[in-house]
Amino acid sequence: MFGLKNVLSLAVILPFARLAVGQAAEWGQCGGIGWSGATTCVSGTVCTKLNDYYSQCLPGSATTPPPTTTVPATTPPPGTTTSTGSAPPGLSSIPASTLHQITGFGTNPNNVPVYVYKPARVAANPPLIMAIHYCGGSAQAYYTGSKFAQLSETYGYVVLYPSSPHSGTCWDVSSNQTLTHNGGSDSLGIASAARYAIANWGVDANRVFAVGTSSGAMMTNVLAAAYPDIFKAGIVDSGVPAGCFSLPGQPEDSWNAQCAQGQLVLTGQQWAQRVFDAYPGYTGARPKMQVWHGTVDTVLYPQNFYETVKQWTTVFGYPSTPISNVSEPYLPSGYSNATYGPNFQAILAQGVGHTVPLFEQQYLQFLGIA
Ligand SMILES: *[C@@H]1O[C@H](CO)[C@@H](O)[C@H](O)[C@H]1NC(C)=O
Ligand SMILES: *[C@@H]1O[C@H](CO)[C@@H](O)[C@H](O)[C@H]1NC(C)=O
Ligand SMILES: *[C@@H]1O[C@H](CO)[C@@H](O)[C@H](O)[C@H]1NC(C)=O
């Protein structure tokens, strides 16, 4: 925690303290915790806050509402819904199109608060997205700062937003409990909420997914390692490998500066072992994973991108070099999409800091929802 507090307090004391040199380019970073570069954008673009850690020069004028102020639509666009028009049994008591806290969803040692967003029209056997916030965030902040809820109105899936119970609102990704299948702590509370949704809401057990940013990205890797039986895919935005923060015997939710700074460099086999150790004896399928990271991330250093690549390529038995590595038309220039096999993609974002902006529509494609 102390390392994190230092990071956060530094960011509070020195926000944009250095004089910005020039203007940030289109798609460039223009603000956020830890950012000391340009805070104004080239003309034709607007500096838009995407989360506490990242503001970006987006094309267009100020008339485009920034994602942080996006209010989820209460009615789906006509003709685009895949829904049946009636909620599965168990979901009917949940109010639609609003963030709603659920309780009594099973074993939850740390009393992780969990919120649900149910769209107006839920698909039959809906997919479930567990959307996991960054340090300093909350379920509410991730709900308003992302488009997962808004897009559920189109695609009919259900969103769960866990909220960290810890001071500083990072997730416990360091204790032995959280890093072990059914071992306890935050990961078990989150897993319980997913199990509850499958058991009571008609959620399709084959389409339960985790998505997270920063600390939530670390948790996504932890869930993928410790609960591969529940989570069928994960999207990791600016995180660290599963087990990288491991500090057994120290308090839950400890900050691991060695990992954060990219100094924990292991072999693929050693990283894969951390995944296997998270659920000893598990022989089933592993979640398909998509990992995003910026090359100038100074909170969770970009070495963590390459360590995460080693981890999952080894777990999947994929080659250590990508079979393709290309730019994508929908992504800003400087982003490269490295594919290692059908279940693993790693997107590196040149010149992007902490964190990579969300690309929700593309995540939905990866998850097979859109
Ligand atoms: C980690 O937790 C598991 C399950 O709670 C336990 O079996 C194991 O002995 C623990 N390992 C360490 C190193 O504490
Ligand atoms: C993909 O290619 C880019 C350069 O185009 C390179 O910077 C990046 O490291 C490559 N990605 C991987 C995972 O090797
Ligand atoms: C990365 O490339 C693969 C292979 O072409 C493609 O299937 C996938 O959609 C791409 N991922 C992203 C995030 O663009």
Automatic annotation (TrEMBL):
<keyword id="KW-0624">Polysaccharide degradation</keyword>
<feature type="region of interest" description="Disordered">
    <location>
        <begin position="63"/>
        <end position="88"/>
    </location>
</feature>
<dbReference type="InterPro" id="IPR029058">
    <property type="entry name" value="AB_hydrolase_fold"/>
</dbReference>
<comment type="function">
    <text>Esterase involved in the hydrolysis of xylan, a major structural heterogeneous polysaccharide found in plant biomass representing the second most abundant polysaccharide in the biosphere, after cellulose.</text>
</comment>
<feature type="domain" description="CBM1">
    <location>
        <begin position="22"/>
        <end position="58"/>
    </location>
</feature>
<keyword id="KW-0378">Hydrolase</keyword>
<dbReference type="GO" id="GO:0045493">
    <property type="term" value="P:xylan catabolic process"/>
</dbReference>
<keyword id="KW-0719">Serine esterase</keyword>
<feature type="compositionally biased region" description="Pro residues">
    <location>
        <begin position="64"/>
        <end position="79"/>
    </location>
</feature>
<keyword id="KW-0119">Carbohydrate metabolism</keyword>
<dbReference type="InterPro" id="IPR050955">
    <property type="entry name" value="Plant_Biomass_Hydrol_Est"/>
</dbReference>
<protein>
    <recommendedName>
        <fullName>Carboxylic ester hydrolase</fullName>
        <ecNumber>3.1.1.-</ecNumber>
    </recommendedName>
</protein>
<dbReference type="GO" id="GO:0005576">
    <property type="term" value="C:extracellular region"/>
</dbReference>
<dbReference type="Pfam" id="PF00734">
    <property type="entry name" value="CBM_1"/>
</dbReference>
<comment type="similarity">
    <text>Belongs to the carbohydrate esterase 1 (CE1) family.</text>
</comment>
<dbReference type="InterPro" id="IPR000254">
    <property type="entry name" value="CBD"/>
</dbReference>
<keyword id="KW-0732">Signal</keyword>
<dbReference type="InterPro" id="IPR010126">
    <property type="entry name" value="Esterase_phb"/>
</dbReference>
<feature type="signal peptide">
    <location>
        <begin position="1"/>
        <end position="24"/>
    </location>
</feature>
<keyword id="KW-0964">Secreted</keyword>
<dbReference type="GO" id="GO:0030248">
    <property type="term" value="F:cellulose binding"/>
</dbReference>
<dbReference type="InterPro" id="IPR035971">
    <property type="entry name" value="CBD_sf"/>
</dbReference>
<dbReference type="Pfam" id="PF10503">
    <property type="entry name" value="Esterase_PHB"/>
</dbReference>
<dbReference type="GO" id="GO:0052689">
    <property type="term" value="F:carboxylic ester hydrolase activity"/>
</dbReference>
